[in-house]
Every structure is written in C-alpha cells, then in structure tokens.
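thread from #wetlab-drylab

HS: before we spend reagent money on co-crystallization trials with fe (ii) ion, can we at least see a predicted complex? here's what I'd submit
DV: go for it
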Amino acid sequence: MTAPTFRIIVEEIMSTHHALLRRELPQITDMLKSLTENADSAPLDEAQMIFQKVRSKVETHLRDEETVLFPTGIALESGSRPEQSEMNFLERLAEMEKEHDGCSKTLDGVSHTIAEHAPDSELKDKLLKAIELVQLDFVSHVDKENNTVHPMFIELIALSQRI
Ligand SMILES: [Fe+2]
Ligand SMILES: [Fe+2]
C-alpha cells in the first residue's frame, strides 16, 4: 500500500494554514472595528463590511474542505467508502479555486483602503501587518491546494469511479 499522501498534505494544511486563518481573521475583525469606530470614514466602513463578507466566505470554504472534501479524499485514498455527500465535487473545486483568487484580491483592496484612509497609528500598522501575514500564508496555502490537493482529489474520484 502506498503512503497516505493526500491525508498527510491536508492534515498539514489544516494544522498550519487553516489554523492561522482561524487565529488571525477574528483579530483582524476586532482591529478593523476599533479602527473604523474612531475614524468616521466611509471608505473604511466599506472596507470593514467587505472584510466581514470575505471572512464569512473563507469560513464556509474551510468548513467545506474540512468536513467534506478532505475526509472524502482521505477515505478514497485509504480504500474505504466516503460518507455520502450532496456536493458536486468537481464544481465545488472549480468554485474554490475562484474563491482562492477572489479572497486574495479582496484582501488586497481592503489593505489598500486602510493604508490610504486610516490615520497613522499603532493600530493601523498592526492591522496592516496582520492582513499581510494572512496574504503571505495564503500564497502557499493556495499553491498546495490548487496544484496538489485538487488534482489528487480529482484523480482519487476518477479512480473510484473506474472500480
Ligand atoms: Fe484550505
Ligand atoms: Fe481552499
């Protein structure tokens, strides 16, 4: 039997990249809230709203990966039967790749708005650093998923349909 490569990769993704998002996103929400409360700026209010939307999209995305896609791939790889799911896997994977793109572009926009419209403060610097950390980590997170996890998942599904 071959090594459970899919399982090892997705476990590493969850314990590093997903854990980082779960730690940083709530902190960014809190910092943005404090920043906008004191600023009275329409662009900053909008950036806060946009961030909340992207955060909830990311959280749904992580949940779909952790509760459906990853467990299904792990089961297929180990030769056991995956739990039934309503999800159209190929469609969801394509949508997830679009979400990867969309999320990093949205975060870029949020970060530019803050840089441009928030008055200089320690909080502003801390917030921009936190967003930058998320964006940097997102690069390798997305690279692993788009270029390794998704192709492996598609192959596992194709193999299981051939049996
Ligand atoms: Fe992920
Ligand atoms: Fe993802």
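DV: Residues 61, 65, 96, 100, 145 surround fe (ii) ion (ligand 2) (CB under 6 Å).
HS: ok that's useful, forwarding to the group
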